[in-house]
Amino acid sequence: MTRSLSLIYLTIIFALILTISPMPDVLAPYRPDWALMAIVYWSIALPHRVNVLTAWITGLMLDLLLGSVLGVNGLIFTIIAYVAASNFKRIRNFSVWQQAIIVGMLSAFYHLTEYWLVFILTDSYFFPSLMWPTVTTAVMWPWAFLLLRKIRRGFKIS
After folding, report:
1. How far apart are CA 28 and CA 111, in angstroms?
2. 138 within 8 A of 100, measured Cβ to Cβ
3. Among the listed ranges 33-42, 48-57, 64-73, 116-125, which one has the minimum average pLDDT value?
4. How many CA atoms lie within 13 A of 150 on its CB side?
5. Contact at 8 Å (CB) between 130 and 111?
6. What is the pLDDT of residues 1-15, one digit of tens each?
7. What domains can be seen in the chain, in order of their start residue?
8. How far is the C-alpha of 131 from the C-alpha of 65, rounded, in Å?
9. Helix count and strand count (H, E) for the chain
10. Which of 83, 87, 119, 146 has the most CB atoms in a 10 Å sphere around its CB?
């Protein structure tokens, strides 16, 4: 495993840690999808390095960390990584704010699909508050993008 790939995996692990880190109860419903942002960034920046397999493994790790139905996040992350990697040239040409809208839509897809799959597999109810992370993910995207780009350029990850 090269140094570049190790740094990519380190940023994904850090995003997973941010995903499970404790937050005050008031802010917990607004937690951004850190792992999703990391997967989308690396799928857009280096689609030959981060692919659907990386997204699937990240999703499975997220399932294990959150104690959710095994495979749900893996499936959704795989679909999102495929969409991001197959359209990476288009998405790269958008401004960071336009990318934030796309990432917000991908996050909405993530939450709605996750709810739908969990509803089919178990018994759950939909609350509109389930969609708040979509807004915070879109708002946090420019800063996550700039931080990950600075890491990629600073360490010359290619």
Report:
1. 15
2. yes
3. 116-125
4. 6
5. yes
6. 588 999 999 999 999
7. 3-20+30-154 (1.10.1760)
8. 21
9. 7, 0
10. 83
